[in-house]
Amino acid sequence: MAYSSAPHEKGWVIPLGCNEKGWHFHDFDKTPHCTISGTTRFGKTVMLKNIMTYLIEHHPDDVEFVILDMKGGLEFGRYKNLKQVVDVASNPVEAFNALGKVKAFMEQQEALFKANGWSNVVNTPIQKRLFVIVDEGAQLAPDRFMTKEQKDMLASCQHTLGEIARIGGALGIRLIFCTQYPTSDTLPRQVKQNADLKITFRLPTGYASQVAIDDYGAEELPSDIPGRAIVKTHEKILVQTPFISDDEMMKRLEVYRVEKVVERREADRKTNEDTIHFE
Question: Which residues contact 268 (CB under 8 A, 6 or more apart)?
Fold first, then answer.
């Protein structure tokens, strides 16, 4: 199923995939947060790139991304110069700093909403949306072999992600949290409870499927069909997700590549700026 075959839809929607009933879409203004699970090589990161490409192509001036690419920046580092990308973190320290800026922005938004009597971004004049993408959330889980400082830093990251999941949706922040093998440690409880869209590709065990979508089934997805996924909202559906290559994504988004993004980020570091510019 090629990305290019996905229909164009208005609003803050993205294509989930296709089945015998046709294309299925998700509206992030109705359900702001999402979890994606799946064993490596079965389509999880490709799904992230589908989402990112579709949102940029349909909202080039209103969408922004903070990406925690915990695979060392190998997947999303190449897109850091897109004008829509605020930051790409490639290790826990960078993730901690990036989430600190998101937290500061969230506090600013709360003050703005209180001052104007707003309760939900969809009922305000604000057109922009900030997407926080976490690719491989297990890297943010504290481990008993870590130092206290490392554990505290990662615990702070998980706490901030929980805060984003709990109150960020109303403020215009959307969280997409991904992990290869979901467990109670790698998938924070606040994130899971507040993410009403759950997508899972093939998983090795029924236990992992239960954690990912509160149901069995991901362990039974075919091992020879990458991109086959279960989508869980108020119902459970099986879809074939779109495929987009890195080359196609780069070609589609090349028009949004700008050098001033790097210059702005460097200026922010020099001035110790703590906030994300998000109009």
Answer: none
